[in-house]
């Protein structure tokens, strides 16, 4: 299926609402622009994605420690990091239609792309959300909602050294909310003002930083492929010197071919020793690493793989969306990787007006729930139930019929092959586990 088309995006958005993946925030009040709520299937997919990331960068490694920093931080953190002074976009307003645009996105910075009216000159617009701590809205009480999770790890560098005593190279990993007052959010969940990040800050010797950067780029690129993203829809794009952030020596984006074009899923940057030096100077604390063998102190360089949870969810949904003709019907199926699929098993009674079948089906579903995310559904005919489960990416459907009462076997249908196999009820959990636990 062609990727760069609005039709595919419309289908994914429609599926998300119809099947309970993603809803418009505050929908009954007309919605809040560019804010989204994750429904029953969406939150399972999102949690599965975060679990897969955590398993890859923390659980399976010996050199990464997890943490969870506060969203609210001392305002001097953002002064030291450069966000107060440098974290801005340029915005331009149309004098005619009054619409606002991110200056960098304009092909013609003098003419409005909507009405061809005259645009104002680009003006700085700081992207941080401001709020006040305490009951008085005073400048002295001004704090910010964090625009990134990274700084929470940098300011805890000394705490980690004192508590874990790690040797270089080592890293910190965190999944958490961040907030940016974007001028032009859009493209569904791709760019929003409230979003979730998956970030690693990997501390290494300066002379090894270039090598570690390449290792992390390859490591993170492979993660997306291993979870099912098609190789032709993924690429690496090194930043030019002109687009590098003020703190970065080098950065490569891992991009996905969304329906609206190639866009960033994750950036992997060499932040050098900028952050630790800035916070050391601003706080008066010694944030250098002491090398026991060489008996010297130095500031480590930092390699940062930083990905977006929400845009990754969108990429996996888009990549998994599949349509195929089955006789005269169109079958829609989300071919999500088994580790990401929101529901692993659906238990379906063939006849809901037969109490014995329903009782057995519910008993089987209850037993499977202890091992797999399992749903029970008897709200439609079996053909419609299959299609419904295909649309949400359920890996296996287990059907209980009249014969099941006699031979104690059920029919197991595979999402991807649509092949059906009779399996003894006593062997069902092991049978499913062979596919789902590997």
List the helices and strands and how they pair.
Layout: H1 6-18, E1 22-24, E2 36-38, H2 40-59, E3 64-66, H3 75-81, H4 83-86, E4 88-93, E5 100-102, E6 123-126, E7 130-132, E8 142-144, H5 150-154, H6 157-164, E9 170-179, E10 194-204, H7 209-226, E11 234-238, E12 250-258, E13 261-270, H8 274-283, E14 289-291, E15 296-298, E16 301-308, H9 309-320, E17 321-326, E18 329-334, E19 345-349, H10 355-368, E20 374-376, H11 382-392, E21 396-400, H12 402-407, E22 409-414, E23 420-424, H13 428-436
Parallel strand pairs: 3-9, 19-20, 19-21
Antiparallel strand pairs: 1-2, 4-5, 4-6, 7-8, 9-10, 10-16, 11-12, 12-13, 13-16, 14-15, 17-18, 21-22, 22-23
Helix pairs in contact: 2-9, 3-8
Descriptive account of the structure:
This protein has a seven-stranded mixed sheet. A five-stranded mixed sheet has the order 20-19-21-22-23, sandwiched between helices. The chain folds into two domains: 6-68 and 148-317, Bira Bifunctional Protein, Domain 2 (BirA Bifunctional Protein, domain 2, 2-Layer Sandwich), CATH 3.30.930.10; 343-436, Rossmann fold. It has helices spanning 6-18, 40-59, 75-81, 83-86, 150-154, 157-164, 209-226, 274-283, 309-320, 355-368, 382-392, 402-407, 428-436, and strands at 22-24, 36-38, 64-66, 88-93, 100-102, 123-126, 130-132, 142-144, 170-179, 194-204, 234-238, 250-258, 261-270, 289-291, 296-298, 301-308, 321-326, 329-334, 345-349, 374-376, 396-400, 409-414, 420-424. Helix 3 crosses helix 8. It is of the alpha+beta class. It has 13 helices and 23 strands.
């Amino acid at each position: 299926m062609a990727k760069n088309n609005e039709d595919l995006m419309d289908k994914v958005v429609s599926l998300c609402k119809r099947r309970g993946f993603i809803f418009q925030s505050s929908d009954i009040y007309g919605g809040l622009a560019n804010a989204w709520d994750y429904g029953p299937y969406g939150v399972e997919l999102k949690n599965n994605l975060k679990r897969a990331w955590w398993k890859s960068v923390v659980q399976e490694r010996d050199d990464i420690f997890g943490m969870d920093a506060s969203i609210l931080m001392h305002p001097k953190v953002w002064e030291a990091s450069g966000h107060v002074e440098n974290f801005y976009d340029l915005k331009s307003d149309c004098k005619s239609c009054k619409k606002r645009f991110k200056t960098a996105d304009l092909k013609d910075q003098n003419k409005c792309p909507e009405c061809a009216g005259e645009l104002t000159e680009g003006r700085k617009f700081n992207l941080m959300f401001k709020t006040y701590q305490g009951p008085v809205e005073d400048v002295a009480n001004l704090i910010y909602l964090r625009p990134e999770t990274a700084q929470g790890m940098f300011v805890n560098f000394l705490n980690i050294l004192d508590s874990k005593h790690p040797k270089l190279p080592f890293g910190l990993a965190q999944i958490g909310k961040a907030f940016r007052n974007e001028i032009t959010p859009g493209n569904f969940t791709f760019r929003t003002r409230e979003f979730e990040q998956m970030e690693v800050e990997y501390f290494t010797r300066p002379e090894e930083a270039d090598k570690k950067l390449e290792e992390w780029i390859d490591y993170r690129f492979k993660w997306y492929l291993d979870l099912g993203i098609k190789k032709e829809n993924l690429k690496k794009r090194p930043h030019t010197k002109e687009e590098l952030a003020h703190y970065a020596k080098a950065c490569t984006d891992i991009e996905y071919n969304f329906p609206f074009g190639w866009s960033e899923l994750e950036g992997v940057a060499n932040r050098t020793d900028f952050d630790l030096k800035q916070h050391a100077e601003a706080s008066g604390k010694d944030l250098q690493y002491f090398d026991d063998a060489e008996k010297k102190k130095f500031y480590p360089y930092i390699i940062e793989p930083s990905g977006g949870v929400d845009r990754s969810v969108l990429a996996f949904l888009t990549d998994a969306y599949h349509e195929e003709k089955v006789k005269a019907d169109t079958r829609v199926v989300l071919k999500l990787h088994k580790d990401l699929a929101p529901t692993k098993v659906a238990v379906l009674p063939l006849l809901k007006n037969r109490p014995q079948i329903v009782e057995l089906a519910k008993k089987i579903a209850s037993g499977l729930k202890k091992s797999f995310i399992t749903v029970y559904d008897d709200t439609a005919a079996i053909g419609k139930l299959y299609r419904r489960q295909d649309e949400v990416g359920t890996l296996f459907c287990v059907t209980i019929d009249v014969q099941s009462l006699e031979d104690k076997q059920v029919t197991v249908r595979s999402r991807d092959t649509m092949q059906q196999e009779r399996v003894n009820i006593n062997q069902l959990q092991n049978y499913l586990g062979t596919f789902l636990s590997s």
